[in-house]
Amino acid sequence: MPANRPTWLERVLNVFTEVQAGEGRPALALLGSVFLVLCAYYLIKPAREGWLSVSVVAGLSKIEVKAYSSFLQAVLLIAAVAVYSRMAATLSRRRLIAVVTVVFAAELPLFYLMQPGLLATPVPYAGILFYLWVGIFNVFIVAMFWSFVADYYDVEEGRRLLPLVAIGATAGAVAGSSITSYLVGTGIFDTFDLLLLAILPLIAAALMVRGVAAEQGELSKDGPAAGTSDSSPWSLIGEHPYLLTAALLTVAFAWVASNGDNLLFGVVQSVLLDEATAAGLDEEALQQFTRERTTAFYGDLYFWVNLLALLSQAFLASRLLRYGGFTALIMFLPVVSVITYASIALFPTLAVIKALRVAESSSTYSVNNTARHVLWLPTTSEMKYKAKAAIDTTCVRFGDGLAAVTVLLGVRLLGVSNQSLIIFNVVLALCLVVLAFRLAREHSNIILAEDS
Predict the structure, then answer these.
(1) CB 175 within 8 A of CB 168
(2) What does the domain layout of the chain look like in residue ranges?
(3) Torsion angle defined by CA atoms of residues 221, 212, 364 and 268, in that order, rounded to the nearest 10 degrees
(4) DSSP H helical segments within 114-229, as ranges?
(5) Alpha-helical runs (H) found in 19-125
(6) What pTM was computed for the model?
(7) What tens digit of pLDDT does each residue of 106-148 get?
(8) How many Cβ atoms from other residues are within 10 Å of residue 427's Cβ?
(9) What is d(CA 221, CA 434) in angstroms, rounded to the nearest whole number?
(10) Which fold has domain 20-451?
């Protein structure tokens, strides 16, 4: 609904990015939807780490259990992407978002019932199953919402407004982690009670996007989200060098980040074991101590990551895009990653690793998150709903799987030290720089071709 002059709200939003008349209301609705999705995710996420920390698989260390579970996610996502692509080719955007959201929301009570200590007979490997589910839920539902956002805007609007919408994602993550810390800290709510609470923001997010889609549908298409083509996501990626480069970069990003997560998780478990041993805890007390302290550590970590990400998203991402273009946006995280792991190689302590991982992860969830969505603006709807879903899910988890292979080869077979794994991550981070630069060049070529 275009207007002659910006409203007072649109003028306020110009603090963050350029918002023109008539753009404020739908942008805020989209911002609100991704806010609610990320809020729900961070109500769920802390329980994942705590539950996994007490999930025992005979013969495997805890860092191996975490790494191999990530690899299994990649395998499961291959089948999930195929199902999702078929749904996107048959359902409208409104129905696609509604169906996928309701399915995920309906599964949360099932995991609540499987939590440790609730049932008389524990469900075998429930913590690992929940870890797999959370990883799939995270990449799938976030990719779906962002596919809609990228499809809603054209290139010019998206370059201005995507950084604003992305504020909702980082703000939702901060809100979710803060709510989790507060409610669990009161002692009234257990971590697993938050699984049921997460259903509310999930459903609300789907309703908000449904409203935006319905409003736009009065003026434009509301047919199948990805059109009627039978092309598979992987054939689209293989046929277009731009998409192939984006896929390779996504795999590399996930590989580097998962290596960092695995290293941090291993260090945390080692420190907690030393503390528990010094305190003389028995086996039962050790299990409770490990789960509670792991959950608390990651709850605090996520809070600082998301707070810094919110500030970066609000005041840095849009300005990088405005003054440095897509190149500055996509190159930011690779440079940060090189600095992070080079510094960790020199000072490999828990405090240093935590601080630098906060810096790197906050860049991932702000500047790089914006870059990952901006890169889809010049692509077709079919690419957005099929290729983007495949890249943001399977490619991410494939990168996690490569991190699992890194653990298998490095820890189990070769017995290398953490220091060697950190140096390996420095090399991978340098590869990120090369791939990001290539993607930036291809993005510029596509924009120039469309303008000519």
Answers:
(1) no
(2) 20-451
(3) -120
(4) 126-152, 155-186, 193-197, 199-217
(5) 24-53, 62-88, 93-113
(6) 0.77
(7) 999 999 998 877 776 767 788 888 988 988 888 788 888 888 8
(8) 11
(9) 39
(10) Growth Hormone; Chain: A; (1.20.1250)
